[in-house]
Amino acid sequence: MAVCKYSIPSEECTVSTCCLMQASIHYLPNLSANATYLAIFSALFVLQAILVLTYRTWKFSIPMLCGVLLEMVGYAARLWMRSEIFQPNPFILYLITLTIAPALISASIYQSLGVVITKRDPLISRIKPTNYTPIFVSFDVVCLILQAAGGARAAEGVREEDRRKVPTGTHIMLGGLALQVASLAAFMVLSSDYAVRYWKKHYAGTQKARALDDSYSEEDRHVSPVQNFSFGLGLATVTISIRCVFRVAELQGGFGGRLANDQVLFMVFEGPMIIIAVAVLTLFHPGRCLRVQPEALTAQSPEQKPTESVSVEVTEYDNSAVFRPLGSAFG
């Protein structure tokens, strides 16, 4: 490792003439790990593209695809940094893309909860299902603007080696990330509240009776596609929240801080958290899990409880989302 020579401008440095402490990050990005993440995100992008062409879930899939594409660009930039570790451009590209990509993926998540609630039981929701998307996507747009503006300001400071602009940009990015954490937390609280209210209304007090009822078959115990999607939505929200909390902690110390230069922590709490979120929403894609045919809603068995047909009774929120494939509610 070369000795630090701060008299040499960073753009003229090489790994043989300067130390890594003079670079924007104080380590060389790992080749195999970053290439693996790039390959995984590329595969997920292809799968998401196939799914949107199949199910026409444009509103859900467009921000998702944009977010995954930015993840791909970000990890490609980290690979570029291996040969240009002292140059500002690959660092700037990696910083901005990986910072704002999860906000786009979050937009897809925010659009989904209202559709799930409309499908299951809108009457017990504290917020009208159609209001979830405008409320949370509005916060997401603000987060995106703050993170992009902060990233651009910090990038300008890195390129010009202006020590005043970098902290300013970092603080703006930090504000955007903190708002995203708060928004995700509020989303999780409302989602959890709805899940508890739904369970109390539809399942509480009936589990023991069902266990003793011989007519309650294994088929009745089958987990529905909507439940699968709800699980995926919850897991994706949690993993993105973990990633955002980590990035807030990371940026609090600035680009020169310990967390910002800990490659192991970055590779654990950044890429894998987003990979899990995208993968689970690919496996339990809304186009596949939320598709409902009208005959499935009207063909009720004689023994079915009235509460189980609530999706037909509450079409005042979104008739089209109930009486056509719900995947197209994203279209």
UniProtKB/TrEMBL annotation:
KW Repressor (keyword) present: no
Keyword terms of this UniProt record: Membrane, Transmembrane, Transmembrane helix
Chain segments annotated as coiled-coil in the UniProt record: none
InterPro entries cross-referenced by the UniProt entry: RTA1 (IPR007568)
Entry membrane topology: Multi-pass membrane protein
Main subcellular location: membrane
Annotated Gene Ontology cellular component terms: fungal-type vacuole; plasma membrane
Compartments, as annotated in UniProt: Membrane
Transmembrane segments: 35-55, 62-80, 92-110, 131-152, 172-191, 264-284
Pfam families reported in the protein's UniProt record: RTA1
Protein name as catalogued: RTA1 like protein-domain-containing protein
